[in-house]
Design goal:
about 290 residues, Tetracycline Repressor, domain 2, globular
Length: about 290
């Protein structure tokens, strides 16, 4: 009887994950809580962490054409994004377990739902971090120390929603760090172009995570959790648009500073159209629209 109940609990999907995702449908039952802790049932976050890394590598290849585009380093960045996004989410869930239990969207996550214990989650966190370390030591020394420095942002981010209206800023600072590392993995030190790329990625992250946070506005207000979605309120739409415009401006400047030509400037039309569509279709009073 007890084993059946435990099995059903482990099998129960997470409310804010895409329905019929691969974890719920095909992953072995014993692995599902851990895959959910790492958010592998919603892999979009992996890409959001990986793209700044790839853009940093690409920007360096523009600035120093003889080096070319380093596809091997890109594979390392993808593996790093995969495991460190999972480690960050696991750490975030350990810190936020008390909050997640009070929010409708998150109370079905593995820790608040009792699918794993805190000790099990902590061991899983360490395992992911060790894989990340194995990847990190493959980079040059400048990038290694830059990666170590990013851990400060990773650690403080989950606490920011308790003390500031701008937790999305700290997520942006942490999630966009790969833009700097992508560049330094090729060049060995920082210059203006990667700093501009990083600044644009931070603004982009503030924009998209403000949209994401709109889902929890009512629950967050009840339990005192802060966010830019609550801060911006009815002004969210045009403020997100402003952050996106700033991101596009900094990215364009970064490309110009790195020596990119007309092709790059023309290619910026595509992300501009995607971000414009997000702003136009954004509905503040419709939480489902934020997914």
């Amino acid at each position: 009887m007890n084993s059946n109940k435990q099995s059903n609990g482990v099998s129960a999907p997470v409310a804010d994950a895409q329905k019929a995702n691969w974890v719920d449908m095909w992953a072995p039952e014993f692995s599902r809580p851990y895959l959910r802790l790492a958010r592998l049932d919603r892999p979009i976050g992996i890409w959001l962490l990986f793209w700044p890394c790839a853009f940093g590598v690409g920007l360096a290849s523009v600035a120093i054409p003889p080096n070319g585009f380093d596809f091997q380093i890109l594979i390392l960045f993808f593996i790093g994004a995969l495991v460190m996004r999972g480690a960050g989410c696991t750490f975030n869930d350990l810190v936020d377990q008390d909050i997640d239990q009070k929010v409708a969207r998150t109370r079905s996550r593995p820790l608040p739902a009792g699918q794993v214990t805190r000790n099990q989650a902590a061991v899983f966190l360490v395992a992911q971090a060790l894989v990340g370390l194995i990847v990190l030591v493959r980079f040059n020394s400048y990038s290694i120390w830059l990666g170590v420095a990013s851990l400060v942002l990773v650690v403080i981010y989950p606490f920011m929603k308790r003390v500031t209206w701008w937790p999305q800023l700290f997520l942006g600072l942490a999630f966009s760090w790969g833009a700097l590392m992508g560049w330094t993995s090729q060049v060995g030190q920082l210059y203006l172009p990667p700093l501009l790329l990083y600044g644009g990625a931070v603004l982009w992250t503030i924009g998209y995570d403000t949209i994401y946070a709109m889902q929890d506005i009512e629950d967050d207000a009840l339990i005192g959790v802060k966010s830019t979605a609550r801060l911006f309120a009815k002004h969210t739409k045009w403020l997100v648009g402003l952050f996106y415009a700033g991101a596009l401006a900094l990215w364009t400047w970064a490309g110009t500073a790195a020596g990119a030509g007309v092709i790059f400037q023309s290619a910026m039309i595509l992300p501009a159209l995607i971000l414009l569509w997000q702003v136009i279709t954004l509905k503040f009073n419709d939480p489902a629209n934020a997914l």
